[in-house]
Structure to design on (407 residues):
């Protein structure tokens, strides 16, 4: 088998929504993955910030194997202990015994739950339907289902599927004055990422989340913090919003939570915790015992191995190394924890991604001019050094090609 052959077979059977990826992966161990031809790569993509413990981590392998052998599925007609234990852990991590959890399968579904809760909240406050508006941010990303898409601030992704649920107003991310102007008593909820991931790891001004909290409180709107990409250690904290001193009314999680097994979670605080009544929402697979067992293994390992502190320390090493690359192709380095964007001076992210791949490093060209680095949280300083080495060489190659093309 080769990547090229598999790509041909893929194109003959799959819908074209992703384009056809050109690399076929076969296995992984730690921070390395191996393709179907036996080439090894340092994985600084981590399945788009998902594989928090890297690949084939023994704690996840054991938890999943034991759970799938004991009981893989119950539906929501029956209780299971991994689900209850995971909700208990999340409740304790967010520090609120009154918080309540709904388990979904991914980030979009977690946000669908948040949107439905926002509707219920709006109706509970104004039964006449005067408080149904949602406010979200330009370039924000919350998922591909129709509800999550309705609050995703990328017109090219949204417009082909309109009409979408609404009303939704968009404001520029990071602009406190624009948020203040948009949030009035017609608004049920404001949806924010603590840092915009898909937009290219866009970090807001320092007091943005606190200002959003105050703006929502004044207008009586809910603050929904989408921690799907930022949560569970990615920024060196369990939750980026809470680390910034802001407790939301709703928090959504997915990606890293179960380290590669599908799960999403929507956590309701305060008045939101009690809005659902039996029959209001549901999912056949959401919070299945195997994904919950994997998530418990992830949370135990992050805690037991001191990974939050590790992320902060290694993140500082990665950031310093990126800043020292000093390439004429780099305009800016931004991010935190183990979550960085290298902003380029031109649309050469895809070329650098290819050149890095040829040197054994996987990175993600999240925008035409932005590379995203989101390695597993277990990455070591020597693996970061190795990645920086490969990235430096890739930047030099692409720069040399650009110089030749200009002559
Ligand atoms: N929310 C954020 C902040 C995301 O980054 C993503 C995916 O990238 C989603 C929601 C959607 O998650 P999923 O792809 O699991 O549906």
């Amino acid at each position: 088998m080769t990547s090229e052959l598999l790509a041909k077979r893929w194109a003959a059977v799959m819908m074209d929504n992703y384009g056809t990826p050109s690399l076929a992966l076969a296995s992984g161990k730690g921070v390395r993955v191996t393709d179907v031809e036996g080439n090894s790569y340092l994985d600084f993509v981590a399945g788009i910030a998902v594989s928090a413990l890297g690949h084939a981590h023994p704690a996840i392998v054991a938890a999943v194997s034991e759970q799938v052998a004991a009981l893989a599925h119950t539906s929501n007609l029956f209780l299971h202990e991994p689900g209850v234990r995971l909700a208990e852990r999340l409740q304790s991590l967010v520090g609120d015994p009154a918080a309540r959890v709904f388990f979904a399968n991914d980030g979009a579904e977690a946000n669908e739950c948040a949107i439905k809760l926002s509707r219920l909240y709006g109706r509970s406050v104004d039964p006449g339907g005067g408080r149904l508006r949602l406010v979200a941010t330009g370039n924000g990303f919350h998922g591909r289902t129709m509800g999550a898409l309705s609050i995703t601030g990328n017109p090219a992704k949204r417009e082909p599927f309109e009409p979408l649920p609404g009303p939704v107003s968009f404001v520029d991310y990071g602009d406190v004055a624009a948020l203040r102007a948009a949030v009035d008593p017609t608004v049920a909820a404001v949806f924010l990422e603590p840092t915009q991931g898909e937009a290219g790891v866009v970090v807001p001004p320092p007091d943005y989340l606190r200002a959003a909290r105050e703006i929502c409180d004044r207008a009586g709107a809910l603050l929904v913090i989408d921690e799907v990409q930022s949560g569970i250690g990615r920024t060196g904290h369990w939750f980026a919003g809470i680390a910034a001193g802001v407790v939301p009314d709703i928090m959504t999680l997915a990606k890293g939570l179960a380290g590669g097994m599908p799960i999403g979670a929507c956590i309701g605080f305060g008045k939101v915790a009690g809005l659902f009544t039996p029959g209001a929402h549901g999912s056949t697979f959401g919070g299945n015992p195997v994904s919950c067992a994997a998530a418990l293994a992830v949370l135990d390992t992050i805690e037991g191995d001191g990974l939050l502190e590790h992320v902060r320390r290694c993140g500082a090493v990665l950031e310093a190394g990126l800043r020292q690359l000093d390439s004429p192709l780099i305009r800016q380095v931004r991010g935190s924890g183990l979550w960085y964007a290298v902003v380029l001076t031109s649309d050469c992210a895809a070329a650098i991604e290819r050149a890095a791949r040829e040197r054994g490093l996987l990175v993600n060209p999240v925008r035409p001019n932005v590379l995203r680095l989101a390695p597993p949280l277990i990455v070591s300083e020597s693996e970061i050094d190795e990645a920086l080495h490969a990235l430096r060489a890739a930047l030099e190659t692409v720069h040399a090609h650009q110089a030749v093309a200009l002559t």
